[in-house]
Amino acid sequence: MEAVTGEDGVARCPWAAAPGDMRAYHDTEWGVPVSGEQAYFERLTLEAFQSGLSWAIILRKRPGFREAFADFDVDEIATWGETERGRLLADAGIVRNRLKVDATLANARATVALRDHGGLEAFVESYRPPAEAQPAPRATEEVPTTSEASTRLSKDLKRRGFAFVGPTTMHALMEALGLVDTHLTGCHRRGVAGRGGAVR
Fold it and tell me: Residue 82: CA atoms inside 13 Å, Cβ hemisphere, count?
């Protein structure tokens, strides 16, 4: 399916065609760079929790995730143990998946350790594909779900102790951060990925 023109006369990727949270995310956040370890860790965490689920579910629960995970304060989460783990698994405001909760706690500790090697933001950013390697999908069927860069990022993060960072999840993270632009060529947001002011 190619870009869809909505009731407002604007062409968008089909998943953002209808008014609501998904459209707002598509038009204001998806592909826009963020700044700082905390913002990168939040997006890494949310993409991991999205695995196997609809992104719409994660967007609806994002306020709950921020509250449950101390606004994604890496230093605080890195100290959490069984008490906090039990609290998270009982929190209906988030996705209560044991493996994903455990991965988030492990990823916080791995993020702290990564500071000795430039930090999470610089590490992820170093996998940005060159301009000539950017996809240019006309239809959703042409949108890639992994890439050579996302596969390398996945392997390297796993080597550094990260979990739930498979190639597909890392490709989604790279899309969200604007490292990869998979807005359809007919979408009004095509070409804006990676540009503009950083958002929180």
Answer: 0
